[in-house]
Design a protein that fits this description.
This protein is an alpha/beta fold. It has twelve helices and 24 strands. A nine-stranded mixed β-sheet has the order 2-1-9-8-10-11-12-13-14. α2 packs across α3 and α5 crosses α6. The radius of gyration is 23 Å and the shape is globular. The chain starts with a helix and ends with a strand.
């Protein structure tokens, strides 16, 4: 299978590769500039190392990242706003030789392009949050990247729809791998947006530019549908629409289709360790509106195992999802103990997700580290949140376990409301869909939710004392 860098070298040099608010680069210009970046970096830092890159949403950022690959070094994209302690941890863990900001063209314009790329080195290292509280460096090999680009670009039909609106941060594997790299691997046009703060402007640019694919996280679609309820949005040029990163609230699907009337919607499941895709389901699948993330993508094998013994479980039994395939990482950078603990004896990666399978479809119940015991019964927050999010009064919800003297832990719900509702009304609705042990004991209205910059809920920051809480619902 052709490597990403080999694919990049084969595209029409006059085709448009990257667009941001400041500039537009052709494939020829991208390759030339990346080669010049490589020349500057090798002269200053040599080859064979790791380089941190504060990856903002710019063409210069992508150019610098590819330049690091051409230099025979490995890029480690990080958030531009990464706090100093986290930056220092990643710098020490990776042994990085330098921390870069995206290089401006005038810093390398006189250099002669070089290509010292080495496909035996990791293509990338993506640091992602770990259960210990410290980020872990996921090694993405050139083979991982090539397989993901080939399969993801295939099922999302990127060759048919070779343009992308990228609204997510580039230090996030979802945006960088499944959008930027996948589109560049097929000669597509990547338009980079800094954020979603102005949905009306975004819609105008997407439509005027004829951009055909867009990927977001559930909070992205929540923002768009909330804006649409006040000011109608329409992006008819978009033909492929993706959600990933967290469970998608299917109750918003009809509104999403109003905004994107010509798009086919894909709900995706993955993790950085899978570069970054494991499974998907598209809207025309008969089980799309069930709580499933679909079937594994080509080349990926999954099974459900007992989380302690790793013995495979029968269909329908809940356990831990494990995954194996050419897209799956070989491990974590400079962390052999964490790497050993991440795999089963037969080479499957432990996802950390509670799940079961039925007829080949994967049903995710939640994270094992989010699941809690209530009176001896396991409670998965995601199951309760799906029911809450289907209530007309609820825009978005999050459930956490709170200590209880009698039952150990009980579910407590935090909700952003569309209109006022009382506790008895909520309980009456939930009682028709959930067993008593899974009905939250207390309900809090919130103004918003603590989220990571890539749109994932920071569940552990929720409590009755959280600054997001406005009142207890009674």
């Amino acid at each position: 299978m052709m490597s990403f860098l080999d694919a990049l070298a084969g595209h029409d040099p006059s085709g448009i590769a990257l667009v941001d608010a400041a500039e537009q680069l052709s494939y020829g210009e991208l390759r030339r500039r990346a080669g010049q970046v490589a020349a500057v970096l090798t002269s200053r830092h040599g080859t064979g190392g790791f380089m941190l890159l504060r990856a903002d949403s710019s063409a210069a950022s992508v150019t610098t990242l590819i330049g690091i690959m051409y230099s025979g070094n490995t890029p480690v994209p990080i958030s531009p706003d990464l706090p100093a302690p986290a930056l220092e941890f990643i710098r020490q863990k990776s042994g990085a030789v330098v921390t870069l900001t995206p290089l401006a063209a005038d810093t390398y314009q006189d250099a002669q392009p070089e290509d010292r790329s080495d496909c035996s080195r990791p293509a990338l290292v993506m640091f992602t949050s770990g259960t210990t509280g410290f980020p872990k460096g996921v090694i993405v090999s050139h083979a991982n990247l090539a397989h993901s680009c080939h399969v993801i670009a295939g099922y999302l039909e990127y060759r048919r729809y070779p343009s992308a609106a990228v609204v997510l941060p580039l230090h996030y594997s979802y945006a960088l791998l499944s959008q930027v790299f996948c589109q560049l691997s097929v000669g597509g046009r990547v338009h980079l947006f800094s954020d979603l703060r102005n949905p009306a402007k975004l819609a105008r640019i997407i439509t005027a530019s004829g951009l055909e694919t867009l990927c977001g996280v559930p909070s992205s679609f929540h923002a768009l549908t909330a804006f649409h309820s006040m000011v109608p949005l329409s992006m008819p040029s978009v033909r492929v629409l993706c959600s990933a990163g967290a469970p998608m609230d299917r109750s918003r699907f009809n509104t999403i289709k109003e905004i994107f009337p010509n798009a086919t919607f894909f709900n995706n499941y993955g993790m950085t360790e899978a570069a970054p895709r494991i499974a998907f389901i598209r809207e025309d699948d008969p089980r799309f509106h069930e709580a499933t993330c679909g079937k594994p993508m080509d080349g990926v094998a999954v099974k459900i195992v007992d989380p302690l013994t790793h013995d495979e479980l029968a269909e329908g039994e809940q356990g831990m999802l494990v995954v194996r395939g050419p897209n799956v990482t070989a491990g974590y950078l400079n962390d052999p103990d964490l790497t050993r603990a991440a795999f089963t004896a037969d080479g499957y990666l432990l996802s950390g997700d509670a799940a079961f399978m039925r007829d080949g479809y994967i049903f995710i119940s939640g994270r094992y580290d989010d699941i809690f015991n209530c009176g001896g019964e396991k409670v998965a927050p995601g199951e309760i949140e799906r029911v809450l999010n289907g209530l007309g009064a609820v825009e978005m919800s999050a459930v956490v376990g709170q200590p209880d003297e009698q039952r150990g832990m009980v579910p407590v719900a935090f909700m952003k409301l569309a209109h006022p509702v009382t506790r008895p009304e909520i309980v009456a609705e939930l009682g028709t869909q959930l067993p008593p042990v899974k009905i939250p004991q207390r309900y809090y209205e919130v103004s918003g939710f603590p989220m990571t910059d890539n749109g994932k809920l920071q569940r552990r920051q929720l409590s009755p004392e959280s600054p997001h809480v406005t009142r207890e619902i009674r």
